[in-house]
Amino acid sequence: MHGEHLVIFSNPLGWGYGLMIPLGPPPRNDIIVDVMRWMKAQEPDYVSCIERADQRLAQEIRSDARFTVEAVPDHFDYVYRVQDLATLKGRKYHKKKNHLNRFRRHYSFEYRPVSDALIEDCIHVLKRWCDWKECDKNPFIRVEFEAVHEALLHVKPLELDGGVILIDDKVMAFTLGEMLNKNTAVIHAEKADPEVPELFVVINQQFCEHQYSGARYINREQDLGQSGLRKAKHSYHPDHMVEKYRICLKETRS
């Protein structure tokens, strides 16, 4: 705690400190300066910044000459209308609907909510995805694997929603999400057997239909600048984007 504010920072993989958005009432300018200077003292060569800051914080401190504020499109969240993803109606979703119909013609499948009995099967799917992505060669993918693995092991304490697709009683895809507020849900993880590409369309559509039909929007997070992921996210025709910013203390760039 820093006065009335909760300050959370991390040092992922020992690569340098990162600061999350301080939680508490404005103004937060001086608190951010204090914490960033402390982080700079711990890691003199590291540029101390807040990544993925929201628009509210960016507007709050944009006029403060001590900071640089930069929009980072790679971190913008993609937000869709739930009914669009659940029904896949209309010409713009024609290809997605064809993928779904082709899957239904070739496979007899079942959707189920995630339960304790299905967690180990979901972990098996996650491990297959990890092997496919060669995550042992990529520390960023490895960290994602470990985060999703932890989430699967703590679905109930984290109060996450989840769904799976079974083919011949075998879990082939799973997803995890939660409600951000009364109108918007967020998808944290979505993994599927790489040998059945249509599974990503199916788990997305089924989860929206069964779990979040009462919500208006669904946030499917950012593309991290990956061209393939960006193409896939745009193919679902987002309703709007949630902008994210990088906020740095100017003196830490010296």
Structural class: alpha+beta
Instruction: Give the end-to-end Cα distance, rounded to a whole number of Å.
Output: 28 Å
The total beta strand count reads 12
**Which stretches are low in confidence, meaning pLDDT under 50 for 5 or more residues running?**
none
Mean pLDDT: 92
- Estimated helix fraction: 25-40%
CATH homologous superfamily designation of the largest domain = Gcn5-related N-acetyltransferase (GNAT)
Q: Report the CATH architecture of the largest domain.
A: 3-Layer(aba) Sandwich
Keywords, separated by commas or semicolons:
254 residues, alpha+beta, Aminopeptidase, 2 domains, 7-stranded mixed beta sheet, 3-stranded antiparallel beta sheet, 8 helices, 12 strands, 36% helix, 24% strand
Q: How would you characterize the overall build of this protein?
A:
The protein has 254 residues and is of the alpha+beta class. It has 2 domains: 9-75 and 243-253, Aminopeptidase (3-Layer(aba) Sandwich); 77-221, 3-Layer(aba) Sandwich (Aminopeptidase), CATH 3.40.630.30. 36% of the residues lie in helices and 24% in strands. The chain contains 8 helices and 12 strands. It has helices spanning 29-42, 55-61, 82-87, 94-106, 119-133, 139-153, 199-211, 227-234; strands at residues 9-10, 18-19, 49-53, 67-71, 77-81, 109-113, 161-167, 170-179, 184-192, 217-219, 240-242, 245-249. The strands form 3 sheets. It has a 7-stranded mixed β-sheet with strand order 6-7-8-9-10-5-11, sandwiched between helices. Strand 8 (170-179) and strand 9 (184-192) form a beta hairpin. Helix 5 (119-133) runs antiparallel to helix 6. 27% of the residues are buried.
